[in-house]
Amino acid sequence: MKNNKRIKISYDPEADVLRVEISKRPIDYAREMGNIVVHFTKEGLPVYLEVLEAKRFLLRTERILEKARIPEFAGRAV
Question: N or C: the chain end with fewer CB closer than 10 Å?
């Protein structure tokens, strides 16, 4: 089955925020979960994510993936 969903990812270097749009559905409310803000529909489906302090988050994620020996990250310098 072909997946026609398009996830849109953008980064604002000035604010250091990584934005991930996973749906075009209307946003009803948002919840902050640590450094991540998740926007939801009325039905509680996630629509949009914002990762605050994105550089720190991504560096930490890269280190975790390296330790897990994920092939795409193995051997890369941090």
Answer: N
Angle among Cα 55, 57, 60 to the nearest 5 degrees reads 105
Pair of tokens at residue 8: 């849109």
Contacts 24+ apart (CB under 8 A), 53-61: 53/16, 54/11, 54/16, 54/17, 54/18, 55/16, 57/18, 58/18
11-58 per-position pLDDT tens digit: 999 999 999 999 999 999 999 999 999 999 999 999 999 999 999 999
pTM above 0.90? no
